[in-house]
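In this section we walk through a basic example: taking a raw amino acid sequence and producing a predicted 3D structure, encoded as discrete structure tokens. The instruction is simple. Fold the sequence below.
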Amino acid sequence: MNRKLTFSFLATCLVAGAPAAVAQSGAPASNGSLPNASQLLQRAIANEHKLAAEREKYDCRITDHTVESDSKGNTKKDTTEVSDLFYVNGIPIVRTLQKNGKDLSPDETRKQDDRVMKETLKYSNQATAQKEENKDDQELEDFMEAMMLANGHKQQVNGRSVLFYDIVPNPHFQAKNLNQRVAQVMQGTVSIDEQTGELIDINVKSVQDLKIGGGLIANLHKGAWLHIHNQPQPDGVWLTDLAEGSGDARAALFFHPYIRFKEISNGCHLYSATATQVGPVQPVKKP
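The resulting token sequence is shown next.
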């Protein structure tokens, strides 16, 4: 499950630097035979940590298409980017290869290489990567408290036990932070792999406007929408193959245009290399 990708859309729509997420509450499902959402969340976190090293063997090619419009629906910016995505200690790192069908210029390539190198070195430090993971886990916990799973049922899909729920706000919860306030205006559906707790598909939208500071600090308009789909690889690693959404928001005095985006994975490749020494080491003679 690519949690960072799931969070990024709502975070961008609302306030720069204030991450958001969608998760489940700890309320029991309507069917007593189903695990409650807190159990599922803990399974997902444990599975993510267990498979973090395996995920680093994957390299994915992704295509992002983003359209920005003005208040009248006129297109202001239409951008397509092709990138490589890989993982360092469980943290996703993206390197852009093309923009609007054209390879990057030498200067753009250099800037990409510099940024990717800095991020790779940063998250090669296990403590730094763990701090980032802990931050994501806390955001999930925040949303878990503010939302509930309702009308749960179970089905067998492609040989896996899949849980289906409606996502609704927790009416008895008092939001304590921005993430939880966002969670309280989102509704939709989610399907979850029962064995691992991993999210398979989530489709949510804001059902009312959200105003922070009376609208002076930020607005998230009704109708903001997010859809994420993940799938398991043969080795048990879960990767995102589709993310799409749209939204309209304002932060402080900065007006964000109406945004539509779609990110698809054009294929993830599993790399596994081993080196075996054959025969004795031979010294290299200097010319």
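Looking at the output, two observations stand out. The first strand starts at residue 58 and ends at 69. Residues 3-270 form one domain. In the next section we compare this with other chains.
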